[in-house]
Amino acid sequence: MSTLSRDELAHLARLARLAVTDEELDLFAGQLSVVLDAVARVGEAPVDDVAPTTHAVPMTNVTRPDVVRPSLPRDVVLAGAPAAEDDRFRVPRILGEEA
Amino acid sequence: MSAPTTELTGRTADELARLLSAGEVAAADVTRAYLDRIAAEDGDLGAYLHVDPEAAQAQAAEVDSARAAGTGLGPLAGVPVALKDVVVTEGVPTTSGSRILEGWRPPYDATVAARLKAARTVLLGKTNMDEFAMGSSTENSAYRPTRNPWDPARIPGGSSGGSSAAVAGGLAPWAIGTDTGGSIRQPAALTGLVGHKPTYGSVSRYGLIAFSSSLDQAGPMARTVLDAAVLHEAIGGYDPCDSTSIDAPLPVLAESARRGATGDLSGVRIGVVRELGGEGHAEGYEPGVLARVAEAVALLEGLGAEVREVSCPAFDLALAAYYLIAPSEASSNLARFDGVRYGLRVGDDGERDLDEVMALTRERGFGPEVKRRIVLGTYALSSGYYEAYYGQAQKVRTLISHDFAEAFGSSAAGGPAGGGRDADGGTGGVDVLVSPTTPTVAFPLGARVDDPIAMYAADLCTLPASLAGVPAISVPCGLSDGLPVGLQIMAPALADDRCYRVAAALEAAQDDARGARFLDQLAARTGAEAR
Fold this sequence. Notes:
The complex is a heterodimer.
Chain A: H1 6-15, H2 22-39, H3 74-78, E1 84-85, E2 88-89
Antiparallel strand pairs in A: 1-2
Chain B: H1 13-21, H2 27-45, E1 48-51, H3 53-68, E2 80-84, H4 111-118, E3 122-127, H5 161-168, E4 174-179, H6 185-191, E5 194-197, E6 217-222, H7 225-235, H8 254-261, E7 269-273, H9 287-302, E8 306-310, H10 318-333, H11 354-365, H12 368-380, H13 387-408, E9 432-436, H14 452-456, H15 463-468, E10 472-480, E11 483-490, H16 496-514, H17 520-530
Parallel strand pairs in B: 2-3, 2-4, 7-8, 7-9
Antiparallel strand pairs in B: 1-3, 4-6, 5-6, 5-10, 9-11, 10-11
C-alpha cells in the first residue's frame, strides 16, 4: 500500500504553493494514500515496448506566421488585476529582508 | 419542483430555430419564456452561477430588430443557449466554479463563445460546475450544489452539472459543456440528455479555462440528438488560436442525425465492450443500468446493425491512468492562479513576500478536491516517482488507443480504415463501440463527497474515449428506478458522425415505441406533481 505521510504532503503542498491547514493535512494524507493505491495499478500494465502517449492527436511544431497583431488594451487587462500601479501589475515583495 | 413547461420552453432548439427563422415567434418571447423559468425554478435547482436578464433580452431584441429590418441572419439567430462557466466570456463573470476567480470579468471571448455570439444566439447565463471541472457531481462547486430535475435529492452529474440540470429542467434549450474524463457524457446520462464529447482537437479549446490540456474538449448537451449535432456544428472546426486544433473539416453531423433517425442501421457494425459492464466486469454496475443498455443494443440490432462483443483489456486501467494524467496536467495548469494578474489575492499586507501571498491566495481560493489533485499531480511528476506514475500512465494511454484501433480495425495512428482484425479474428473491425455511459443512475447528494475513489468510479466508462481522444456520445436509453440511463457510443477519431447516426436511430426507435420524447416523461411527472 502506498502511503503519503503528513510530512511528505506538507512538502508537496509547499512545492505547489499551497498553504494547507493542519486539518487538511490529516484529511488529505488519508484520502491521497487511498487514491495512490488505486492509481498504482498502472504498474500492472505490460508496457515494455510501449511508447508513451502525451497527446491523442499526433502533431509537432505548430507555428503561426510571425506577424505583429494587436494585443488586448492595457487598461482592459489591468482592470482584472488584484492590484495595479503606473499601468503595471503591482506584486507583493519578491526579495527577502536581507536582500 | 418544476412547473409545467410552457409551449416555448418545451420546444427543441431545432424547432425554435425554425420558428424564429420563419418569423412565427419572436426572439424576445423565447428568451423571456426561459428567463421566467429561470426566475421561478433556479433558486431550487441551482443550475446557473450568473444570469443577466437585461443583457439576454437586449440580445434577443437586437435579433428581432435585425430580422424585421430584413438583415440576413443565420439559422440559429435568437435561439437561447447556456454556457458552462469554464468558458470565458468577454465582460461576463466567469469563475470556473472557483472562489479564486470570483467576480472576474474576462477581457475576451472563448472561440466557442465567439462562434455562438456570431451566430446571434442569446446567452442566457453561465452554468454551475465542479470547481475547475474536477468532479462528477457538481458538489465541488465553490458556490452551490445543483440538483437533478428528475429527483432534487440527487446530483445532476458533473462536472457540467449546471448545464445538464438547466437543459433537462427546461431552463435552457441546450447548453455547452466540457468533457475531460466524462464531464459532458456522465451528466447528460444522469439527467436524460444527449451529450457529445467531440474528437479531441475538433472543437477549439481557446478560452476554456484549462484543467487537463491533453484531454479537455467542449461539446453540446441537448434534449435530442439532432439538437446536439446542430450545436456541435455551430461551435466546431479549425481555430488557429488553438495549436492543438485539427485543420480538417467537421464531418456532416446534423445530416447524419437526420439519416440515423430514419431507423436503418443495416451494415453498421457495433461492438459491445466487455470490460465496461460485460461478463466478468459487472462489479459496481447496477443491474437496472445493464438491463437498459442490453435492451438498447437489442433494439439497434433490430434496426439492422451487426452486434458482437469486443474485448479492450487496457480499459481496465483507464481509471488509474486518468487519475494520474489529469491531476499532473492540472497541477501545472493551475499554477497560473497565483494572485498576480487576475482573480483573488490574499494576505498582501506589504510585509509578506510573493511566495507567502501566493500560498495564502491558493489556500483560500481553491476547494478541497482541487487541492487534492494539485498535490497528487505534484507527487506524480516529482523526480523519483515520475516514471512509476506519470510515465507509466502515458504508456497505458497508448495501450488504450491500441485497443480502440484494433476494435475499429484501423491502424494505431487512428482513423477509419477497415480490414483489421477483431477480438474473434473475424472480418474487419466494428464501426462503433457501445457501453453504459455510467455504472449507476444519479446518486444522492452527499453520498460520495468524502470518498474520492467512489466519486471517481462514476467516470469508469467515459475515461477510455477521453484518453484516446476519440468521440463519444451519451444518449438516453430508458429509466432504472425512475432515473435516466445513458448508452455511450464511441467512434474512431474524426468519425463523430457515426455517433450521431447510431444515437439518432436509437432515439427515434425509442420515441416511436414510447409515443413521446424521452424528456416528456419528466415533464409529465413534474406536471402531475404541480397538479
